[in-house]
Amino acid sequence: MTGEKIVELRSVRRSIAVPDGRTLLDAALDQGIAYPHGCRSGRCASGKSRLIAGEVDFLDHTRIAVSDEEKTRGFILACRTWPRTELTVTWLGGEDGGDDMFVTLEETRLRSACSSADHFTSTIQSGAQP
Ligand code: FES
Among the atoms of ligand 1, which is closest to the Cα of residue 79? Predict the structure, then answer.
C-alpha cells in the first residue's frame, strides 16, 4: 500500500498530496500546478524552493543546483525531493517573497578565460567556448 504526504505550496496557496516515491515536482505537475522547473534532474536549480516546515529526502543532484550550505538554510530542489513528512514549501520568486536568498551585487567586470566546462548542464556547455 502506498502512502502520501500533504504538501502546502504557499506560492499558489494550495495543498497537494505527494504519493510516496514521487518527487514534489512530479506530484505538483500531475495536479496541474505550474511549478517552476527545467532539467528535472537536479542540475539547473530552476525549482529551487524554500522548505518552511517538514523533512525531506534528497535524491541525487549537483551542488551547483543546491549546495550543502543552502540545504542547511532550508533550500530544496522540487525535482529531487521526496517528502518524508507533511511539508510547507514556497518556490523562489513567488508572491510571498520566497526569494530572499538572492542578493544584489555591485557589477564588477573581470577579465577571464574558460579552460574547461565539464560539470555543467548541456545547455551551459553548448554555450561555452573552451
Ligand atoms: S528542474 Fe533543474 S534542478 Fe530541478
Answer: 4
- Which domains can be identified in the chain, with CATH numbers? 4-103 (3.10.20.30)
* Distance separating alpha carbons of residues 3 and 7, to the nearest angstrom: 13
| 3-state percent breakdown (helix, strand, coil) of the chain, nearest 5 | 15, 25, 60
Taking the C-alpha atoms of residue 4 and residue 95, their distance in angstroms, rounded to an integer, is 27
Ligand 1, from 26, 79, 81, 89: best to mutate by most atoms within 8 Å of Cβ?
79
Q: What is the pLDDT of residues 40-78, one digit of tens each?
A: 999 999 999 999 999 999 999 999 999 999 999 999 999
Sign of the CA dihedral running 23, 26, 29, 31: negative
- Counting atoms of ligand 1 from 1, which one is nearest the CA of 77? 4
